[in-house]
Write a structure and sequence with these properties.
Blueprint (H helix, E strand, L loop, with lengths): L3 E4 L5 E4 L3 H40 L6 H12 L13 H10 L3 H17 L6 H31 L3 H10 L3 H21 L7 H26 L3 H29 L2 H15 L10 H33 L3 E5 L17 E5 H22 L6 H21 L5 H18 L4 H18 L2
Antiparallel strand pairs: 1-2, 3-4
Amino acid sequence: MQNSFKFMHPIMVTYQAKSLLEKMDLLRLIQQQQERIKKLQEEKEKQALEYKCQQQCLEKGDQEGSAESDLLGERSSGFCLSEENWWLLEVLDDIDVAIAYRQFEEAVDLILKAQKEIATSRLKTTKFFVDLSKGLEQRLHDFTDSLIKEMKNSLLTHANPGRFALLCIRLGKIKKSRAMYLKKKSIALRKELKNFKACGTIEEYIKKLSCSFFSTIYSFTSEFLTIFDTKACRSAFIIWLSSEMRHFALLFLRSALESGGLDSVAKCVYVVKENSKLLGKAGIDVYHIIGEHIQAGIINSLKQAASQVLMNTEGILFNASRTTTFHSHGLGFIGSADFLNESKSVQLHSATANFCRSADSFIRCSINLLEHSSSALLPPFFEILEEVFLTYARILQTFSIDLVEDKNYLVNEFVPHCSRLLKRYPQSKLSLRKLQKTLASILTD
């Protein structure tokens, strides 16, 4: 490849530069870094040799006055290290070298080991240990910033941000690493949803979209809870998850609720509910979160469907005056023998017949929707249903012909039929009984 080069340590990686000038700049930078590392190693060896000579000179002191000799050594040099702690003289340089070679795990081990040694040493108040502690703090700050930057760039380099998050946690920077980790996961998830192409019917699109969304969330959840296994982190994750559910709910509202009728919306809600159960394996129930975000959209869909019932009926009412004979064989929209007896028939205005068909269909589609939605939708639904009946009753009152049979039919036959359809909901009995009384009051005036 043109303008490419290989970097052999610690692993072989091929880099692609945009131009020859950029390639030469990168190679020059690498060469400078290698020379710096070589110089650091030479200085370490020189310091180690000088310290060894110093220790040998101290050991030649009077054995009988060892206490005075040790005191003199501490006063003259500022510290007195045992042979097994000589590595502290070079630890700052070793950390720099490990970071330069991207051996981040080794750098973290050195930092933690040095911090532990300083904390347990009796000489931690000496100048050497004070300077060493300051040097470690500075490197810890710079190194943490580098790890956060690596996490930030992991989406572009396709690296695993979990590696850098674990290193930050070991260094005690859990809050900072958690925030960056979740931010990168949000970017990756939203990019995936943005690139998801709509195809087929609305139901098929929602099924594929929700399946992809919840599968990705599930893998993120397992990874996050493995890396950040604390109560505070779990709380932060739930807050993040709620934000992502809100974003998914917006996509759902934009496609399912704005493009289909109640029946289509019910199927889409069912699909989302089923796919969300995947997160139950991780011990998280998210459907109620989505339900809260789409509740307003579902109520709006119910209102639109209810308005459509009245619009279709009102046009027939003012453009037709003939009556229609209704009997049990003609009520295909009902599908239940208990609505009217086989031998019973009734003369209704065509608008009332159309209203009954539309209202019955509206209730049945709403039941399918309510089965997979939050119980918080029930009160708004019964309010909408009541408004539909009352509006049609007021329309009947403005009609020039006194449709007595239609009015009796609505109050004494159709409302009880609706009550039977909605009997699975305890509040339906009270709501429809109240509706029946209100209808009777309006239609008898």
